[in-house]
Amino acid sequence: MNTSAIVMLIVVGGIVWIGFIVSLRIALKREKGKNSADTE
Amino acid sequence: MEKREVFSSRLGLILATLGMALGTGNIWRFPRIIAQNGGGSFLIPWLIFLFLWSIPLLILEFSLGKAARKGTIGSFGKIMGKKFGWMGSYVGFCAMAIMFYYSVVTGWCIKYLFSSVSGSVLSQDGQAFWNSFLSSSYQPIIFHFMAMLFGSFIIYKGVRGIEKVNKILIPSLLVILLIGMIRALTLPGAAAGLNYLFTPNFSDLLNYKIWLEALTQSAWSTGAGWGLVITYAVYMREKEDIVLNSTIIGFGDYGVSLIAAITIIPVVFALMPSIEAATELVQQSGPASTGLTFIWIPELFNQMPGGRFFLILFFLALSFAAISSLISMIELTTRIFIDMGLTRKKAIIMVGSTAFVLGAPSALSMGFFGNQDWVWGVGLLVSGFFIAMAAITYGVKKFRNDFINQEGNDIHLGKFFDIIVYLIPVQFVVLLWWWFSQAGGWTDIFSSYSVGTCLIQWGLAITIFIVFNKKIMALTLKEGEAR
């Protein structure tokens, strides 16, 4: 692969996939917190 | 009082809305759109519109549906006032018009899944198989009917049916796509496809078409501006988050689009005899842009070891994605009629039979299909504009405080969000002006892909909804329900 293609893949893929994983993790963590608060 | 159905958990809501977003837009549309529009250069406007168009619109849609607890027409009437209800009618109709031909595409996916399992799709030339399928007077109609029947049956089970189906479909879809991507990337010569896909040519960014296609693709694929999220938000729990959920849908949808492109384009480059032949193939995707998926993919998969197995997986993923999106479109239309007082059963029978009849011309004529995909795909920009106008008419700051920054929301939105909302109409006007001034064809209303055909069909729909707005509002909202 050429360098500019690798840079583009890392930048776009990184923003999209890291964004997805981080936001999903935060959402599920908050949901767990809300549920345990409701139980208490 | 009738008990309102709600999604049982946040994960249930996220998977259902991801199911709405993940569809043929990711697997059938994105790889060919990026291939035809500059590869790496296309990714720049595509990513910009995620943050300036799609995620903000998803946030507005969640807020509208959650606040109004009505479908598209009722939400606009309730939040903006009854005299603006016609905007909600247009948003609903645009999604409905897409549903008519989307069901046809879902039918194709199911047909190809069956044919991959039986092996018949591999027994003859890809073009010949596709032609014989389309020229058959009954097959496209039968598979379109099957898609609508299956989708309507899931919707009949209500929101819990949608949740259950998506809990199976979405994780399965991701696993299948990941397997396909690993296989594609391990083919010798796949790197040439990645080079084609990700190498930017910045001069392409001066072409209006790349920006128009990037915005249309972003809206088409994430579901922003369709009104689908307004509909699913009707079933949100009271203290449910809006902002983070919208971000997850946007990123998740884009991530799957990238996986689909990284799977399909390298396969083409690895299996075609030369890079020139592969480039020509991905840029000319056949009648109504069906060629890459339905003609070349079966032929190319047939050439690789274990190809039939991966072809079955590919069409299984495509069918799962198509069905999970089709059901959200059926639900959107069904919800509108439920708001008008029909029972779910009666509304589904009406929507299912109407969609079957009005989708039939797209099943029988590729010219008609291509025209509808163009008119209502770009028509989503108008829908997005109307949704932004709902917040602007209400007062963006007030909208943010009243409907978004409420208890249960994980991320508090500040003033910057107001600026982004104001930018939505600006993007709409600039892009439309750029497109209209460059493309021409204003009076050419009978050409499949002209400005004229879009203006006449959008104009006709909007005129009808303005004329009948009072009647539609009277059916949808009770006295005192509107602002």
Structure notes:
- The complex is a heterodimer of chains A (40) and B (483).
- Chain A has one helix at 3-39.
- By secondary structure, chain A is mostly helical.
- The A-B interface holds A 1-2, 4-6, 8-9, 12-13, 15-17, 19-20, 23-24, 26-28, 30-31, 34 and B 9-11, 14, 40, 43, 47, 191, 194-195, 197-200, 239, 241, 244-245, 247-248, 251-252, 254-255, 258, 408, 410.
Element layout with pairings:
The complex is a heterodimer of chains A (40) and B (483).
Chain A: H1 3-39
Chain B: H1 10-21, H2 24-36, H3 40-68, H4 72-80, H5 85-118, H6 126-135, H7 139-156, H8 159-185, H9 190-198, H10 208-222, H11 228-233, H12 243-271, H13 275-283, H14 291-303, H15 307-339, H16 344-364, H17 366-394, H18 396-404, H19 415-439, H20 451-467, H21 469-476
Helix pairs in contact in B: 1-8, 1-12, 1-15, 2-10, 2-12, 3-4, 3-10, 3-12, 3-17, 3-19, 4-5, 5-7, 5-15, 5-16, 5-17, 5-20, 6-14, 7-15, 7-16, 8-12, 8-15, 9-12, 10-17, 10-19, 12-13, 12-14, 14-15, 15-16, 16-17, 17-18, 17-19, 17-20
